[in-house]
Amino acid sequence: MKHENKIYRTLCILSMIIIIWVITLSTANAQTFVDTTQQNKNIILEEFTGIGCVWCPAGHLIGQQLHDNNPNDVFLINIHTGGYANPQGAGTDFNTSFGAAIATQSNLGGYPAGTVNRHQFSMTQNGGTAMSRSDWSSASTQLLSQPSPVNIGIQATVDIATNVLTVDVEVYYTGTQIVSTNMLNIAVVQHNVEGPQTGGQSNNPGAMLPNGNYNHNHMLRHLLTGQWGEYIQTLSPGTLYSNQYTWTMPVDIAGTSLDPTNISVIAFIAEGQQEILSGTEIYPSVIFANAYDANCMSSSATDIVCTPTTDLEVMFRNYGNIPLTTLDIIYDINGGTPITYPWTGNIPSAGSETVTIPNVSVTPSTTNTVNFTLANPNGNTDQNLSNNNSSTTFAGLGSADIGVAEIDITTDNYGDEITWALKENSIVIAQGGPYAGGAATTIPTTYATLTNGNCYSFIMYDSYGDGILSPGFYMVKDATGNVLAYGGSNYTTEDQTNFETAQIVIGIEEINQTQIDNRIFDMFGREHNNYKHLPNGMYFQNGKKFIKIGK
Q: Residue 15: what pLDDT?
């Protein structure tokens, strides 16, 4: 009997060992996509930036080059925060509720700055983890060769019908750690966000768009796991952690559209709030509910300069689950008769197209509005009418009186960055700057003559890219005191205002009253002396233009 009990106990122990082994093996093999072999560390570069920071585009360029050289190992999170990130109008607030705290804990000493895995290197600023852009590459090289105790795998989808982002994360531990807990962080970043950027043209011209705006990428939009992440308690080698996260994405964040086809998800593991061990990035798969869905993303129109025409531009994306081959682009200007522009092409799901409609004639007001509507994708009714429209404004020509105009400039402390030009029919007729730096200075008034029937452009330039800071400003007035142009800190590198003088049309009776000893020339430079036999047309006398009408 004792022998039987001993055998029974042995069998029980063996059974328990087998059960534990099976459970352990099942746990280790439950993952479907995370790598279980030890990998070297990946880099999470958090760059602190802002649209008013002139050197930040140089940081964007360095970060992008670092990612492009290591596409599977270096991942970027651009965090707009601080004074340089103050909005410059509607749709330009790129801040988040998370950015300030991340920047504060880095002890950054200026912009642009960045952390490489939130690691404290010898070259970091103020004893923190932030470094200048010149140190990011060398810091990344140091960590990329180090083994990581943890691997991260992510999968993600976006359902266009519900705007729900679903993220599945697997974390597998391959090595031991000296800490007792880790923090899992999941960030959503957005790409191809159009907006202003001081210093973009000078320090990252490849990111400039044809309309003069800047193409922002890797922009932090949200943290699914909160400010500092979610706890992982078990860190022993062979341990698998998995979880699923969902986020119903808003249409916009602080007025900036959140395009679900232009986001990526970055997951990383940190020791508390600081040291990041490794991370990875994925672009979600997009689930399209409809076959026919054209999404109007944005639109623009050029200001009128000298001729009553504008170039229209509209960007749209195919939100249908089949290729988009035909589309009607319907537009009206200032509420006028709608005009249909037929488009043909071949855009896959989630693909986009920018269409330019050039030289559109318009009877302009000072401010003009053009409305776009997309219709009939592939000759069918659009199945989602909520995303088919866009509106934009453009400036017409201001009106100026002929005579002597006044140009008044008060510089900021950086007058050496300021220049300006007044152009008549694209030819410079007056200009000024650069001026002395060091203190705000009121420049003596400059005078320029505006003549009959001409088109003018007044352009302010700032080489640094931050406009004229307070108390500086500029103002242009015509001969009767009308303000033609005024501004200051509301521009970056260039600010242009266009206006025209009225074209006075006179007949033969008025011509007979002029001084007949003044020579008259036609458009080809030929002199005419017989006033009564002048053919109808445009002529010049004493540098002034007139048109003859009538017999």
A: 52
Strands (E) located in 9-149: 43-49, 74-80, 113-116, 131-132
Three-state secondary structure call for residue 510:
helix
Half-sphere exposure of 359 (CA within 13 A, CB side): 0
Helix or strand holding residue 2 (H, E): helix 2-28
The structure's pTM equals 0.74
Beta-bridge mates of residue 474: 409, 487
Interacting residues of 5 by C-beta distance below 8 A, sequence separation 6+: none
Q: Report how far apart, in Å, the C-alpha atoms of 93 and of each of 50, 57, 178 are.
A: 10, 17, 41
The answer to whether the CB of 85 falls within 8 A of the CB of 51 is yes
Distances from the Cα of 376 to the Cαs of 48, 57, 390, in angstroms? 43, 40, 16
Question: What tokens appear for 333 in the block?
Answer: 């200007």
CA 207 to centroid of chain Cα atoms: 9
pLDDT at 337: 95
Q: Could you tell me the sign of the dihedral formed by the alpha carbons of 359, 361, 365, 371, in that order?
A: negative
- Angle at the Cα of 197 (from 281 to 112), degrees rounded to 5? 65
Domain extent for 513: 505-549
Contact at 8 Å (CB) between 189 and 78? yes
Q: Which residues of the chain register pLDDT less than 50?
A: 2, 14, 17-29, 506-517, 523-524, 551
Amino acid identity, position 278: S
Q: Terminus-to-terminus CA distance in the chain, angstroms?
A: 138
- How far apart are alpha carbons 279 and 42 in whole angstroms? 6
Alpha-carbon distance values, 249 to 90, 166, 244, 321, 420 (Å): 20, 10, 16, 20, 45
pLDDT in tens, 252-278: 999 999 999 999 999 999 999 999 999
Same domain, yes or no: 116 and 196: yes
Question: Helices (DSSP H) in 70-169: which residue ranges?
Answer: 99-106, 136-144
Tokens of 234: 């078990």
- Nearest-CA neighbor of 33 among 151, 147, 150? 151
Residues 449 and 480 in one domain: yes
Span 176-218, pLDDT tens digits:
999 999 999 999 999 999 999 999 988 999 999 887 899 999 9
CATH classification at residue 222: 2.60.40.10
Domain final residue, candidates 396, 425, 441: 396
- The torsion of the CA quartet 136, 186, 128, 465, rounded to 10 degrees, works out to 60
Q: What is the DSSP letter of 11?
A: H
Could you give phi then psi for residue 143, rounded to 5 degrees? -85, -30
Helix axes 136-144, 56-69, angle to 10 degrees: 30
Bridge partners, 253 (sequence order): 256
Let me know whether 367 and 474 are in one domain.
Answer: no
**Is residue 38 situated within a structural domain?**
no
CA distance 524 to 451: 20
How many structural domains compose the chain?
Answer: 5
Q: Checking phi first, is residue 350 left (phi over 0); if not, alpha (psi -120 to 50) or beta?
A: left
Do β-strands 520-522 and 527-528 pair in parallel, antiparallel, or remain unpaired? antiparallel
Nearby residues of 21 by Cβ (< 8 Å), 6 or more positions away: none
